[in-house]
Amino acid sequence: MNLEYRCLKCGSDRYIVKTAVIPEKSPGLKIEIGTYYVKTCVECGYTEFYSAKIVDKEFVKNKKGKRYAKATP
Questions:
Q1: How many CB atoms lie within 10 A of CB 53?
Q2: CA-to-CA distance for 63 and 69, rounded, in angstroms?
Q3: How far apart, in whole angstroms, are the C-alpha atoms of residue 21 and residue 44?
Q4: Would you list the domain boundaries of the chain?
């Protein structure tokens, strides 16, 4: 998830992230459980939901593409 976040409503950079598990209905009668990240602005309460499947996939993709330099003492 983007850590350089600014609230769209008030411009604050302070937020909390929680995980929510929500039942979802697929086509037909199948019900699945979906995991979401809920990002809430601490100042005004503006809230955004992100699908954990998408966020985690992007995180892994970005992590594999980066090369890390060795730390020097």
A1: 11
A2: 13
A3: 24
A4: 15-64
pLDDT in the model for residue 25: 80
- Per-residue DSSP letter, 4: S
Q: What is the pLDDT of residue 64?
A: 63
SS3 67: coil
Q: Cα–Cα distance between 8 and 62 in angstroms, integer?
A: 25
Element (H, E) at 45: none
CB 36 within 8 A of CB 53: no
Render pLDDT for 21-50 as a digit per residue (tens, 0 to 9): 999 887 777 888 899 999 999 999 999 999
DSSP letter string, 10-44: T----EEEEEEEEEEE-SSS-EEEEEEEEEEETTT
Rg, Å, the chain Cα set: 17
